Amino acid sequence: MGKDMIRQDELKVLASLGTAIWADSDLSEQNVLDTITAASLCGLSPEKTLEKACRGLLERARGQSVFTAWIQNPSLFNRIFYRLSPGERFVLTAVHVGRWPYDRLGRILDKSRDEVQEVLWQARMAMDEGNPYPAGPAILGSNCPEYQPRMPWTQRFLDNEDIQGKYRFFLTQHLLACPSCAGAMARCRALYYRVNQEIVKNMGVVPEYGNSLKKVLEQSPLHQYSTSLSLGESLEIFFRKPDVRFVFMIFLGLVLFLIIRLAAFTTSV
């Protein structure tokens, strides 16, 4: 069962994502519990179950504006994190708290990798309002990596995204030799850590219910993703819950009552 369950650290990130979208703790807990429980009943792998739950959270948040969070808690007006849209808060929390890769975010948001990078950069820009703009290299030499202002390579480098092996070694060596690119990296790094500090301040503490999400899934009658369970085993798990047994007994009693009435009617005829 253990290998088929979503990891505890991933469930904690999910709880933080819920808090990022809904400032109200009760509303966040209810929405996260509802979406992860529903997703767990779809018979998917742990990773796909988690992604489906995230899409459920974003679907519930669709149409909400930044004013929703302020109405729930007026004190959030002075916190720049909650001035962003729910989707922007989701992306920033997923990357800075969960260290989730662009590919996963792309699947959740139904966006390409380039689009994910643009959303992330725009969210960081909005988060860093009032600070100097992290401009790109002042001069581009023939060996300088291509710099795209809406999705700069400096962001990917700091997110440790698709910059590995020989290419990362090249960039590291290039930064040592190119003052222009090194300056762009320094400005982006300053932005990155300002944003990270603000997010940690808002989302650094995992909601209390985040520690109990695994137990909630374990108690779900269909929490196992394995298809090796027989029909009898599946029914046994399903009928372990007292409320399920109670509803079933009421249904069974109603069926017996109808059978008796039908038999009495047939006899009288």
Largest sheet: none
Overall pLDDT score: 82
Report the β-strand fraction as a percent range.
under 5%
Poorly predicted residue ranges: 224-230
What is the straight-line distance between the termini?
Answer: 57 Å
Overview of this structure, please?
This protein has 269 residues and is mainly alpha-helical. The protein folds into 2 domains: 2-219, no CATH class; 239-268. Helix content is 64%, strand content 0%. It contains 13 helices and no strands. It has helices spanning 8-21, 25-40, 46-61, 66-72, 86-96, 102-109, 113-127, 153-158, 165-177, 179-203, 213-219, 231-238, 242-268. The chain is elongated, with a radius of gyration of 25 Å. The N and C termini lie far apart (57 Å). The relative contact order is 0.12. Mean pLDDT is 82; it is low at 224-230.
List its traits.
about 270 residues; 2 domains; mainly alpha
Short summary:
This protein is mainly alpha-helical. It is built from 13 helices and no strands.
What does the secondary structure layout of this molecule look like, with pairings?
Layout: H1 8-21, H2 25-40, H3 46-61, H4 66-72, H5 86-96, H6 102-109, H7 113-127, H8 153-158, H9 165-177, H10 179-203, H11 213-219, H12 231-238, H13 242-268
Helix pairs in contact: 1-2, 1-3, 1-5, 2-3, 3-6, 5-7, 6-7, 9-10
